[in-house]
Amino acid sequence: MALSGSQRTLGLNRYNGGMKAFSAPVLRLAVLLTTLLLPLAPQAQERLPAVVAQALKAAGVPQTSVAVLVQEADARMPRVSFNADKPMNPASVMKLLTTYAALDLLGPAYTWKTEAYALGPIVEGVLEGDLVLKGYGDPRLGFEQFWLLLRQLRAKGLREIRGDLVLDRSYFDSGVHDPARFDGEPLRPYNVGPDALLLNYKAIRLDFVPDIAKKTLLVSAEPAPPQFDLVNLVKLGDGACGSVWYEGIRMDLTETGAASRLILTGTYPAACGEKSRSVSVMSHAQFVAGVFRQLWAELGGKFSGGLREGIVPAQARLLARSESPALAGVVRDINKFSNNVMARQLYLTLGAEATQRPARNADAEAAIRAWLAQKELRMPELVIENGAGLSRLDRISAENLGRLLHAAYADATMPEFLASLPLAGIDGTMRKRLNGNGVAGHAHVKTGYLEGVRAIAGYVLDKRGKRIIVVFLVNHANAGASKAAQDALLACVYERSC
Description:
Blueprint: H1 5-37, H2 50-59, E1 66-72, E2 80-82, H3 95-106, E3 113-119, E4 122-123, E5 126-127, E6 130-135, H4 143-155, E7 160-161, E8 165-168, E9 204-211, E10 216-222, E11 228-232, E12 235-237, E13 249-256, E14 259-269, E15 275-279, H5 284-298, E16 302-303, E17 307-309, E18 317-323, H6 327-337, H7 340-355, H8 361-374, H9 398-409, H10 414-419, E19 443-450, E20 453-461, E21 467-475, H11 483-495
Parallel strand pairs: 5-7, 6-8, 7-16, 8-17, 11-14, 12-14
Antiparallel strand pairs: 1-2, 1-21, 3-6, 3-18, 4-5, 9-10, 9-15, 13-14, 19-20, 20-21
Helix pairs in contact: 2-11, 3-6, 3-7, 4-5, 7-8
């Protein structure tokens, strides 16, 4: 039966009245139940998991010196948050910020180029003028890629250069770099500064080959620039080969003008067999010029000119171009193997692309901070010196690293970013960790290590298939002993026991 308008109104009023009659008690009961059930709702655990706390105690690391965050990648709130808002030195974990920003700002397909120009006519294979090499900061311009660039010149018939070699390194304004400033190890390749014409990480590989029958040690260099003199005075010795096999070898570098002499002394254990070790010698410009002379001669070319620095003039003619692998592959090398030099190159590239002028560290920092603001990732505690994490000044909190990883997981470039991280027990800097543990092969984790700092940050795919964000930062004199505590956290997150 159809109801009249007044009947419908009356019925509605009665219903509302009924609700008013019992809504107050129901409301009070609902509030009481909500209050009672609140402790059962998911909340961030503000204490460390027991296995982690025990491992830290065994390592002599106080809990006040660590920060931990555990959060499901698709959740808004963390599962564990301990000292998470405390600014900490992240060491190489800072590369996560640099590489994610680069993937988002430049795109996974971004590439770098290196170009060769002719200044003057080429007549019957002879360049009557200068050859200019211009770099755009390629982090992956290696010995082989440089050979291929010069091979292009030979393939086009160029056999002799009668002018100078001119280097255009103006894409970066990297300033004066002291390779000994960080830790007093100027020959270590990880201390190499950025450069628009970075070649082979400015590193020479020394190969040590013992001849037991003759009781001698052969040491060779690759590449071998003509102005680099290697003096081998190392003796072949007995005894076991330790984990730091080169500790008995002393290296003394002297530089006079364009020439560099590296003198090796000490003892090399014959039991070590063949080994190799890379060193960084010479300035960027002298290194490029030296390798150019070596390879050009090997390719049958002639060059007797000098070395100058300058800018590619408008009338220069492009002869050859080398292109780097795509950024997705470069980011993989940076994060898997924690390559500091490549990270510095990428950092300055962000500055150069943002400003369209010779980039300085300040330009790169401004580009990253502007990107963070656009992403609504506020990080007031952030201190970033060079984008690589090779710094005593860098600071970031575990909470904001977690927010960064949360944003990256929801980003279109997530597959490239995730795949760039070392896989526990499989590759990169995590290759020898957690072998045989259930979490092996299920944790993509960036590592960071400095004296007094040990850090991890990344994602764990737990045994139920949930992706979990994990951040663990340690800043303490005994940080080096905290690896077991970090591995314990990864394992218990995988097992869902913490």
